[in-house]
Write a structure and sequence with these properties.
mainly beta, 60s Ribosomal Protein L30, Chain: A
């Protein structure tokens, strides 16, 4: 374990997504628009279409799945950090279908919202930064 950062300077931003928006891209757009470089976020709502992935630890590659039907968001959680000078969104989502079956994974662009909202907790006095980790094949937070 490594303590990456400590802060007591937090700012809350509440956002509402419009029907038909790509939620992944909208979170990134809000971060650029407001100037958020480090944050954690939580959300609820429902998707019209969802794209998620599972990270296979043996192959070190993402395996993608797509839901082209309405599903309820039971949990949306992620963080905003910097990868070089670019905003990096890392988000996981758990959903429920009409039969109450749960599915989850790493949220991907192309996930279209029907209705939703999120709380972004901005950490304004630090910058969370990513670096490539050759052992896992992932872009992890720097310590």
């Amino acid at each position: 374990m490594a303590i990456v950062a400590t802060s007591s300077n937090l700012k809350l931003n509440v956002i509402r997504f419009k029907k038909g928006e790509d939620i992944f891209n909208q979170i990134k757009e809000v971060a650029y628009k407001i100037g958020i470089k480090s944050a954690f976020f939580f959300g609820i709502g429902t998707f019209q279409k969802l794209k998620i992935a599972y990270y296979n630890q043996k192959t070190l590659k993402y395996e993608e799945a797509e839901f082209n039907r309405e599903v309820e968001i039971t949990s949306l959680i992620g963080d905003i950090s910097l990868d070089g000078n670019e905003i990096f969104i890392h988000c996981h989502v758990t959903i429920s279908d009409k039969d109450m079956n749960a599915h989850g994974g790493h949220l991907l662009p192309g996930s279209i919202i029907f209705a939703g909202e999120a709380l972004i907790i901005e950490i304004s006095d630090i910058e969370l930064k990513r670096k490539f980790d050759s052992e896992t094949g992932l872009r992890i937070l720097e310590s």
